[in-house]
Please model this.
Amino acid sequence: MSTRTTDPAPAPVSASPPAPGTAPPSQAGATASPAASGRGRMPLLALAALLALAALAVVHIGQGTASVDLHTLWRLVTGAAPEEGSPDQASAVVLASRLPRLAAGLIVGCALGAAGAALQSVSRNMLASPDTLAVNAGAYLAVVSVAAFGVSLPAVPAGGTAFLGGLLAAGVVLGLSRAGAGPIRLVLAGSALTLALSGLSGMLLLLRSQQTTGLFAWGNGSLAQIGMETIGRLTPVALLAFLGLLLLGRRLDILALGDDGAASVGVSPRVTRSVAVTLAVLLAAVAVTVAGPIGFVGLCAPAVVRLLSTWVPGLIRHRAFIPASAVAGVLVVLGADVALRAVFGAQAGAEVPTGIVTTCLGAVVLVGLAHRSRDLGSDGGSTAFARLRGRRAFVLTLVVTALALTGSVVAATLLGDATLLLGDAANWLTGRSGTFVSYVLDTRVPRVAAALLAGAALAVAGAVVQAVSRNPLAEPGVLGVVGGAGVGAVSVLTVVPLASFWLIGGSALAGATAAAALVFGLAARRGLEQNRLVLIGVGVSAGAGAFTSLLIVLTDPYNATKALVWLSGSTYGRTFPELTPVLVALAVSLPVLAVMRRDLDLIGLDGDTPQLLGVRLGATRLGLLSLAVLLTAGAVAAVGVIGFVGLVAPHAARALVGRRHVRVIPVSALLGALLVVVSDLIGRYVIAPAQIPVGLVTAVVGAPYFVWLLWRSRSES
Model:
């Protein structure tokens, strides 16, 4: 007598090639337990999850500045009358504050967990989530835009606004990263768009600081609630979206077979994806409206369920996978909130956003998944390394770029809240200018010099990182080096407000060095492969950003503007002595790179050719990366955190003059300086006397170029 078993359904995130950390469908089927065993384990797993959820809920409600014991909780649950002679303050605290916070954790965890599961399925990429698809960033920008102009919306219209912003962002990212194209393209596209949208949000937070008071902490995801009104209005919306995903479960199972297989049985891949993405974005918009953008829950929750599916094979079916991810999301959110208040205390737990903890957890998960992954090859953009350009093109590019930089420096010196003439600058140089002109140029010229030197340093660092990693989509910011430098500098700014500039610069160098050592150390497994290097860098960068936000909120929650300006990159108040670190970094690095230009060319080719020609690959990479770290730390110390310069300038230089680094490095330096000087001029001039930090302008300018680069490489492939 034969025992009848059922074949396991295809894994919901199977990709071609498979996403990192997931086994191919055949392998999953080979190792799956019999169906009867799986059905027996499912109730046990569900019971364990419910018990864990109940325990977390009890602990969660009991935490806070006011003591609430189990006896009081039991009276509240059973509806018993207050004991005679005892104050009912605890009951009021629970009903007014803690139950809304618990309800927010429940709805946000469910929404983000289910949304992450659906997005991973339709994109066939286990790194898809509302964060990596820029859904949270788009929804947050929409909410901030409404608040910045003094418009106060009820819960449902606010959720609709967040939904539109998130849907547009998800459409752009998914359009740039084909289904099954591998994790690197999706993460890079999402990171680029997130940085651009965050730059716009940062502009609004700074320019309309009074109208957006409190949105900085809320922007990191906070469960703190005032009453149940918002939750009560949005919960039905979330339930409808969740039920819609459950109804799509069978279609998503079939879609995992591939587009051709799904179409052959009457399931439209395009319609199924569109509906699933719309419902997932709606869930994410509800979560953002309730608690702000809580990071990486949509990445962690499905990853936990996928790990459990090796023990309970039935979880890989979407009608179990989506609810299980929702429950896992609740456990992640409530667990993070409980851990936050247990570690930092009840009062600090009320001030520190829960999203900071979930982002740190998600960064660890992302780094772990990337570390375990196998390299999937280039995801586009590498064609820039193969271009060849003649000497005439190099000379013409060098001359035109130098002239453009000269013109931008002159314009940046003369234009601003006070417009000057060339004669005024000439008199200032000869010491014959008046008091007003001297004051203006004494403050403006160091700013222009800081933008010029920092832009050149970041561009040269980006060229080195791209050569060493053999990935033209890499840059110091994407690889976590800028985030590490930011952590070091902000640590000093927040803990020692009157710290000297040299202490801040040294801390930035230490933070950049630590981040670089972590990223490249983890990525060194089987060499610095493209996908692993960038994914680990994105994870470290996210963790560094969360830790920086934690420092700001813990030390100075009511005056975050100073640190926010520094994190956005600013040349305000710079003096010539403060430019010494970046000047020294350039003076040390450029001659060394000129000597090592041949090694850079060889390392940029492949991993075997340099060794055949006598290049000590390990030592050379370490030396080059050390120079990149030095340049990045010097630039961060001078102007703060500026993104995309190290990506845009080297790539544009390579496209213009070819791949030989004797040409790429000087042109990259000129283009980087040009980009930052022009961005600083725009930030100082367009809304004078108010100013926009230069890092926000470069993010808004550089992100479209990066998106275009991904789109072009998508078309080529």
Observations:
- The CA atoms of residues 414 and 422 lie 7 Å apart.
